[in-house]
């Protein structure tokens, strides 16, 4: 599960009593040491508060500074929710600081990498996140709330049962369309979404959404109730449903059972979409991260979920360029086209330039800053051609083409008018099909005469091992699982837009983690 499971919340007294205990503060060092000692001396702990941004090695414990006064634990936890399970938190309110522990170091690294380009805001105040020197956060468990985000999470506020895994969702002020897939993308950050049914009642768009357990429903209700999906509109009103299980008969644009992708679409209904595809909004609509100057593309599930909780906003970057610097490339194997294909999963790549004097580095110009940020957050640290690539924002505003008559050995390529752009067409179903690389790939546009064995051989020839395979949608689509993420990346680079014959070009994309787990069970 990509959302949070249990959140171990630190002792409430820790935020105040830590500061009333033995404290010393050295301005010259920039560090503070805080100790908490109870009356019997049996429950002491010391934490070093890293007030100065240092060079601490990666850790699953993150230090968050410059928090606004009276910030709630829910607001702090929401910063980490999109990146993985939050396992512990300790707030130092008198210091306007907090420690947040994630379940894995990888999740913490993803969070730090993302927020290095997208400054997080809490209550419109920019906050700063860095690795802590602590490898784990130890707090007194005696007063923990058993995984709830806040007191009151067990109250239904709507006649339903707090123990139910089913939520009833009403959308107020619905100025922009909210699709079933938009709901799945937002709510899946808090647990595994099993089923969704959407309908209109009393002229209001409503939905029933079922998690795999009540804990996910509780987390989602606490974090999302009353929040806006888009800027100043589409407000979520969430109650617990009296139902404990939803009966979904069809997979289409009105209902979806993510555990049964083989369900029919139903008479007269549009066919079910790829489960990892989310319907797009118009270019001028507000996004889950609020209004940003310039044309917007929908954002990733990670950023969207955090923003839906009302906690994160994009910082004001100078300029509107979307140029990335990619380093540590395998210079013997990388090509402009391979970079175009991989980075094209997260936006429309305009130009690629492999640097002439440093061929393990390249500049990639995306259609806008938004797409560049998404590509960076998902691809930084991934393996491409056996090397871990590094992706950062470039100081350049555009990628320059070589002067006329100058041979740059094919290191620069202009893809501005490429027909392979996934997001150029307004309303394209490819919008928000932007999930982190995974070992399982979604295949579409498969000719009827292509067999499972044909596809297994094709993908094995890219140098990987096929672990599992499954057709669905009358063999027009399929899921294929490779042994590693690196193998899946290689297959996507090699086989996206591969000509299968009769003008059928294979479409390849990464699969969302929730569906991967269901695929593995099947």
UniProtKB/TrEMBL annotation:
Bias (Low complexity) ranges: 145-156
GO cellular component: nucleus
Pfam families listed in its UniProt record: RRM_1, RRM_5, RRM_8
Repeat in keyword set: yes
Segments forming domain RRM: 60-144, 167-243, 322-396, 439-513
Keyword set, alphabetical order: Phosphoprotein, Repeat, RNA-binding
Span list, region Disordered: 138-160
InterPro entries per UniProt: HnRNP-L/PTB (IPR006536), Nucleotide-bd_a/b_plait_sf (IPR012677), PTBP1-like_RRM2 (IPR021790), RBD_domain_sf (IPR035979), RRM_dom (IPR000504)
Protein name in the entry: Polypyrimidine tract-binding protein 2-like isoform X1
Organism: Carassius auratus
């Amino acid at each position: 599960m990509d959302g949070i499971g249990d959140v171990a919340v630190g002792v409430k007294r820790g935020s105040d009593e830590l500061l009333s205990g033995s404290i010393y503060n050295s301005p010259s060092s920039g560090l503070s040491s805080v100790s908490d000692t109870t009356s019997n001396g049996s429950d002491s702990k010391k934490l070093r508060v890293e007030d100065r941004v240092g060079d601490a090695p990666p850790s699953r414990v993150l230090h968050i500074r410059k928090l606004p006064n009276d910030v709630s634990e829910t607001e702090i936890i929401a910063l980490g929710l999109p990146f993985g399970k939050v396992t512990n938190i300790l707030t130092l309110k008198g210091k306007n600081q907090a420690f947040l522990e994630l379940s894995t170091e990888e999740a913490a690294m993803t969070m730090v990498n993302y927020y290095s380009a997208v400054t997080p805001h809490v209550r419109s105040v920019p906050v700063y996140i860095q690795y802590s020197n602590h490898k784990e956060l130890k707090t007194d468990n005696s007063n923990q709330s058993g995984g709830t985000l806040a007191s009151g999470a067990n109250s239904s506020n709507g006649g339903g049962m707090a123990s139910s895994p089913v939520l009833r969702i009403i959308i107020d002020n619905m100025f922009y369309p909210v699709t079933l897939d938009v709901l799945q993308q937002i709510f899946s950050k808090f647990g595994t979404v099993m089923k969704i049914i959407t309908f209109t009642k009393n002229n209001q768009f409503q939905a029933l959404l079922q998690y795999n357990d009540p804990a996910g429903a509780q987390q989602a209700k606490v974090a999302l109730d009353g929040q806006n999906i888009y800027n100043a509109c589409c407000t979520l009103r969430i109650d617990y449903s009296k139902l404990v299980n939803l009966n979904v008969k069809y997979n289409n644009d009105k209902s979806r059972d993510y555990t049964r992708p083989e369900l029919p679409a139903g008479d007269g209904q549009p066919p079910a979409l790829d489960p990892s595809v989310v319907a797009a909004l118009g270019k001028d609509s507000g996004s889950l991260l609020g209004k940003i100057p310039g044309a917007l593309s929908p954002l990733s599930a990670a950023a969207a979920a955090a923003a839906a909780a009302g906690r994160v906003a994009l910082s004001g970057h100078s300029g509107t360029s979307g140029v990335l610097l990619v380093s540590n490339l395998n210079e013997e194997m990388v090509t402009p086209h391979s970079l175009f294909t991989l980075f094209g999963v997260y936006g429309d790549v305009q130009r690629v330039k492999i640097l002439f004097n440093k061929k393990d580095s390249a500049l990639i110009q995306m259609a806008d800053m938004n797409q560049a940020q998404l590509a960076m957050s998902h691809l930084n640290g991934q393996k491409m051609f056996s090397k871990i690539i590094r992706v950062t924002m470039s100081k350049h505003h555009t990628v320059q083409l070589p002067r006329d008559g100058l041979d740059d050995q094919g290191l620069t390529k202009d893809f501005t008018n490429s027909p392979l752009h996934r997001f150029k067409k307004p309303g394209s179903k490819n919008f928000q099909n932007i999930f982190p690389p995974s070992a399982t790939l979604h295949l579409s546009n498969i000719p009827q005469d292509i067999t499972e064995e044909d596809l297994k051989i094709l993908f094995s020839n890219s140098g990987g091992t096929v672990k599992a395979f499954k057709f669905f949608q009358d063999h027009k689509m399929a899921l294929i699982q490779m042994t590693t993420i690196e193998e899946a990346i290689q297959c996507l680079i090699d086989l996206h837009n591969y000509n299968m014959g009769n003008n059928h070009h294979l479409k390849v994309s990464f699969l969302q983690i929730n569906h991967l787990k269901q695929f593995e069970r099947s």
